[in-house]
Design goal:
- This protein is mainly alpha-helical.
- The chain folds into two domains: 56 residues, no CATH class; 44 residues, 3-Layer(aba) Sandwich (Ribosomal Protein L9, domain 1), CATH 3.40.5.
- Helices cover 39% and strands 6% of the residues.
- A two-stranded antiparallel ribbon has the order 1-2.
- This is Iron-binding zinc finger CDGSH type domain-containing protein.
- It is found in: Membrane.
């Protein structure tokens, strides 16, 4: 454990202290190849931490979080002749507790993710 402590407290501190970080943005152009090679582990480490942070904080990529997960594909068929009201709203955000009908869950989903999902509204001609 002492070796790890020394590595972090002494070696890593010396490495960071000796990084050839330029004083200005255009000073980057004056860095030699040796300077860039010396900074590669540091830049790679910062990039890796940034990538892990992005993966941790990004919104879920799954559009269907909970509806009929046992099925290979979710398909709902509704005959328009069976509609009992003049207007029916169907969910397109997959968050509705009454799926396939819309219950307004897209409002919270849109607020949380910045998305713009809304229902599919079908109206009967009068």
């Amino acid at each position: 454990m002492e070796a790890l402590s020394s590595l972090i407290k002494v070696s890593l501190a010396n490495y960071i202290q000796n990084l050839p970080i330029p004083d200005s943005f255009f000073g980057i152009l004056s860095l030699s190849i040796k300077d860039w090679l010396y900074m590669t582990p540091f830049i790679g480490g910062i990039g890796y931490v940034g990538f892990l942070t992005y993966r941790l904080l990004r919104p879920s990529q799954i559009c269907n979080p909970s509806v009929n997960k046992a099925s290979k594909k979710v398909v709902d068929i509704i005959d328009i002749e069976d509609m009992t009201s003049d207007k029916v709203s169907y969910c397109r955000c997959w968050r509705s507790k009454k799926f396939p009908l819309c219950d307004g869950s897209h409002n919270k989903h849109n607020e949380d993710t910045g998305d713009n999902a809304g229902p599919l509204v079908i109206k009967k001609n009068s």
